[in-house]
Amino acid sequence: MYYQDSLEYKSERIYHHKTKEYFNEVLSSYHNGNYRSAVVMLYSVVICDLIYKLQELSDRYSDTTAVSILTKIKEEKEQGPTNPKWEKTLIDEVITRTNLLEPQDKLNLAYLRDNRHLSAHPVLDELDMLVKPNKETVRANIANMLDGLLCKSPLLSNKIISTFLADLVSIDGQLVKQIDLERYLISKYLHKINKPTEQKLFRDLWKFAFKLDDAQTNEHRTIIYKALLVLFNKERTFFVSLIQSEKNYYSDINLDNPQILDIMLNFWSQYPATYIHMDETVKVIIDNKVRENFILFAKSVFLSDSLLEHLGKIKTRLVSASFTIRLRDPETELLFNLSEEQGVTKEFLDLLIISFKESSSFIDGDLNFRDYIIPYGKIFTKEQFKEILTAINENNQLYSRRDARKDNPFLKEMIDMHPFKDEIDYSEYPNFRL
Predict the structure, then answer these.
(1) Phi, psi for 291 (deg, rounded to 5)
(2) Listed residues 94, 124, 150: the one ending a domain
(3) Domain end: 150, 174, 193, which one?
């Protein structure tokens, strides 16, 4: 809507409350036709806003770059209290050492500074010693500063990764649910940063999640990975193109670390487009690792054209191994989540039922009932429950096991939660004893 381009609308989004207060004087001067005063005051507001933003970075996030810049300009002010040189130093330091200003913003700020000097300082060899800028120029200056600086969060320092990681470490173990971590990170960081900072943060998080191998990183790798997922899901297309454009950097992964390999396979399976852009050397290593390792293969969905095809490949390997290998909780969790997203939950559950049916010992029966049947009792169909009952009825490793005494009544309780409970005839399964 056109009103969103109005200066009044934009000014309501000014980040710092003191800046908003000072900015009212800029608007007042502009609307009253005092364009020279508006430019001079706007420049002063910009200087104040830069300081407020650096102070917040210093106080709230312990940003060392912000502390350094503030210290430097304070020393310059003390050395020359009446010398405005520190203002130029402030702008130059922010431009060169932070991501607060994007390239276009830097040009706009330089243009404002030139207009301010012309408006505030007499030109001795001109008849009109003080330049009076026109309305359009002043409005452009105001709009550019609102969009490029005043409405932005200060959280745009080049050193954001150290602050971000320290915060992740401090909350590790507290925000267990991904949705809670997402709300926290978006509120505190991600809605306040611009594209260059997002890009740098993603690049750094990738390094910590998938490359570095040290005690502290290993301890907190899970939450670092979860934070990377939050950022990635914020703008998937952008980050996929980023991976594609810097293939060498993003392919530099420590696949010898089991922890890294595990989460890397999870990431690629959730977002197979990212695997496509990996270097060929990475693909060769992965192919070799999953060839002999069923667990790694099971979670490497990205190696198949579809999840449905991958479930079929898993079944083939289970059959060829006579079901002496099995899916563990991490693999079933990943496959279940993906099957829900892609609408193939039935096929996933059918795979679990087959694995349960082929239990070759009492121990396998106990484990398979616990891992493959109990967690999905609310979503099995009537036909799938009949398959489970048939499996128990026909396999003595299932109906003769000791735990069947408690598992069978529990299975009936799960069936009784469904509207089709009266459509199950238990007399058809004489070895299913309650």
Answers:
(1) -60, -40
(2) 150
(3) 150
Element holding 109 (H helix, E strand): helix 103-120
- Is 266 part of a structural domain of the chain? no
Q: Is residue 188 part of a domain?
A: no
> Got the DSSP string for 330-365?
HHHHHHHHHHHHHT-HHHHHHHHHHHHHT--SHHHH
Smallest Cα–Cα separation from 224: which of 283, 277, 185, 168?
168
Q: Where are the beta strands (DSSP E) in 3-49?
A: none
* pLDDT tens-place string over residues 172-190: 888 668 899 999 998 888 8
For the chain, the domain total comes to 2
Whether 382 is covered by a domain: the verdict is: yes
Q: Which residue has the tokens 């012309």?
A: 118
Q: Is the pLDDT of residue 366 over 50?
A: yes
Which two structure tokens, joined as six digits, stand for 77? 């002010």
Q: Which two tokens stand for residue 5?
A: 């381009």
| Domain extent at residue 397 | 304-434
Q: How far apart are CA 302 and CA 284, in angstroms?
A: 14
CA distance 341 to 353: 20
